[in-house]
Amino acid sequence: MSVVIIGGNECMEGRYKQLCREFNGKAKVFTKTKGPLRRQIGQPDLLVMFVNTVSHKMIHSATSAAKGSDTEIVHAKSASLSSLRSILEEYTKH
Fold first, then answer.
1. What pLDDT does residue 79 have?
2. What backbone phi and psi angles, to 5 degrees, belong to 28?
3. What pTM value is reported for the model?
4. What does the angle CA 75 – CA 42 – CA 47 come to, to the nearest 5 degrees?
5. Rounded to the nearest 5 degrees, what angle is found at the Cα of 45, between the Cα atoms of 42 and 46?
6. Residue 7 contacts residue 50 (beta carbons within 8 Å)
7. Which of 21, 53, 55, 90 has the highest count of CB atoms within 10 angstroms of its CB?
8. What is the distance between the alpha carbons of residues 93 and 64, in angstroms, rounded to a whole number?
9. Predicted confidence (pLDDT) per residue in 46-73, tens digit
10. Alpha helix ranges (H) inside 4-94
């Protein structure tokens, strides 16, 4: 399972990736814009956006990059590990 996380806290990037590994997933984390997201995101299975810690521009770019693919998009207000854990638990149930 591939996961892309948009937003969140820079100091938590390693923890986000570790938590995804616990669910047998590989994660890319983008807390800041580092160029065009369309090329960097690819086609993940799950796109998680922490909306309270990211700009509207990044949300729009990530959403448009994921359109047309089978990527599941989840918006979360909290950028905590417990929030990400509950999203991953719900997603892996499918």
1. 92
2. -115, 135
3. 0.91
4. 15
5. 100
6. yes
7. 53
8. 26
9. 999 999 988 888 888 888 888 878 899 9
10. 13-22, 37-41, 56-66, 81-93
